[in-house]
Amino acid sequence: MAQLSQNTQRLISIYQTWFRSQGAEGEVKIHVDEVASKVAKFYEKMRGVIDWREEHLLRKTAIERVLKRRLFLRRDGKDISEPLVHELIRGGHFPNDAIPESKIAEIQKSIDKYLYILDNAPKPPKEKLQMNLYDWLSGIAACETEGILAPPIKEEALMDFMAELMEERIEAKISPEEKRIQIYIAIQKALFKLDFSLIAYNLLKKWYPDWANLPQEKLEEITKNIYFIWEKLETHLSHPLAEKFYAVCERYDTAYLILDDIVAAEPSLAKNNLENASMLENKIRAAYKERLKKVRGRLRRAAFYSTMSILVSKMLVAFIIEVPFDKYITGEFSNINLGINIVIPSLLMIFLVLSIRPPSRQNEEMVVMEVIKIIYERERKDVYEVKPSMKRGLVLNSIIAFIYLLSFVASFGTIVWGLRKLSFSLISIAIFLMFISLISFAGVKIRQRAKELKIEKDKEGLLYIFIDLFSLPIIQVGKWLSNQWRKYNAVAVLFNSLLDMPFQVFVEFLEQWRSFLKEKKEEIH
Description:
The structure is a single chain. The protein is mostly helical. It is 77% helix and 1% strand. The chain has three domains: 1-28 and 152-193 and 240-275, no CATH class; 31-150 and 195-235, no CATH class; 300-376 and 387-488, no CATH class. The chain is built from 20 helices and two strands. Helix 5 (102-120) packs antiparallel against helix 6 (127-149), helix 7 crosses helix 12 (242-265) and helix 17 crosses helix 19 (462-488). It is globular, with a radius of gyration of 26 Å.
């Protein structure tokens, strides 16, 4: 019988602890009104279409949005944790009758900590930097709130498990501390696609193990150095080799995800399942097929919601800017062109999703081998080398930059020429280019998500080089626009400023009204 590694046995032990904690009883749980919850959930689904975020970030994004709104209404942050938690449960972000009431005090303590840092941080030379600190700390506070309400015990255990193995296998000519941090960052992005706020929060917990319960003197020290800590985190997140580390971790993360599925399904039987070679292989193949099915479902949802989010905003822009401009200023309005402007981006997304190729049979065999490699004691370890990209001279860099500039001009120039032939106005062309770039970037991100279970390397021929040459400029513009879109999405701003607050007041009133009616019914004998 093969011997499980010490790391694997420790992972199983943590998963068993996590499993036992799931059914813990004894504490009073938070309850919200079911009718008010149905109304709030419908609203959240509508928001999901308008201001789409990837599934794994929806909850954290919702917490940050609600937290900022409630802090805006009550700047001192006193007693906001209870209504915040109730709103999150009503919106379907956390289950009803499952979260202990003791969590409310814990979250309030967490919020007080971040407000203390904000109120007592040194005054920066620029006021904008203080606003940026508020946004950054709000994101970190949202991460901590999510962690309190749904402790990521097994996720953190899996990340630590992968980090320990990757530290043994990855070789890089940087300091051991740098290497350890870059591996941990890359693993978070590869395994769970965490964003910068979550990664930064996890790093803070590594650097300050008592982050959740900081002594006053420690809190004062962190507050005094908060801009230095923030800058240090940003430096690590933008490390020159960050993408190289991510590429290695992203390629081999499949084995860890499959191991997670196997152990989480039956924690109490995990040791026996992993030690039995024939049973293990069957478990791996079954988990692989199940996860493949889930990945396909997520891709379809991501394609639908990202397209709908962009198209709803596109139609708003069309009716507010494009149609009036073409009708009353240029006189070039065309229903056909408006239809093309809306339909073509959607067809592009459909094409990008439908052209995704499933992993081959060989990939499944590679996954089986990789899972076996990571769970058993082995004398010989695989080695992955991370090194900087080859340096190019000034002349070669200039030639490459010139070719890229030509491909940029050719890509956008061809589209502009085609649209002018169809009598598109200049404003319609600009809007078309903006949305085709956004859809292209969203589609490429979805295609990358489809590689979640792929270990085998993609084979690319001359055709792919040609396609990349002309599509990369459009995708790069889409990436830049996507970052701006999150800040200035007009429909999302409309929801936040005009609808969000009144709607939550209505839902809270509805909950109180139903509570009043129940009390009156109880008085009837």
